[in-house]
Amino acid sequence: MHGDRDVAAKALFCLGGWRGLEAPGKAQQKANYRFLINNGRSNLNWQNWFLDQDNDFVIDRFPLPFLQINPADAGELGLVNGDMVEVYNDVGATQAMVYLEPTARPNETFMLFGAPSGTQGNVINGGVNELILPNYKQTWANIRKIADASPATAKLSFKSWEVELG
């Protein structure tokens, strides 16, 4: 009840148009670096690896932080599953294990968030202003190979996460 009348409690969802790359530095990064580096969590590392460093189940599945990349992009860079790469831009650098993902769009990658080694945050600029939330979920960077796949990655499955159920 609201005063003397009934008020139906309904949520009002309003569509807000995307206002572009408002965060300082993001547009320049996009212009200067080839790859969009999205980041997020995996089901196995839902919180982050800082909590799972001593969990053998987690470490056996992903002994290294991974970077999912389109196979054609990887081919151009001479990369195969398990290779180690450096992800770098004007903010910093980090490293990751290559994970070919056929559903990844060209020039767009996905990197695991929250790994104690290969910290994705090393390449994220401040990217905030008073009007928007921090833009820490994406950045742009270049990628270069730093090592061939090691024997430690030979036992890993690099099957695509995207499967059709039928």
Lay out the secondary structure.
Blueprint: H1 26-32, E1 35-40, H2 49-52, H3 56-61, E2 66-69, H4 71-76, E3 84-88, E4 93-100, E5 108-112, E6 138-147
Parallel strand pairs: 1-5, 2-4
Antiparallel strand pairs: 1-6, 2-5, 3-4, 3-6
- Major sheet: arrangement of strands: 1-5-2-4-3-6
Strand content: 15-25%
Tell me the helix content. 10-25%
Low-confidence stretches: none
- What would the average pLDDT be, to the nearest integer? 82
Order of helices and strands: HEHHEHEEEE
Radius of gyration: 20 Å
Distance between the first and last residues' Cα: 49 Å
Number of helices: 4
Question: What is the subunit arrangement here?
Answer: single chain
Descriptive key words:
166 residues; six-stranded mixed β-barrel; 23% strand
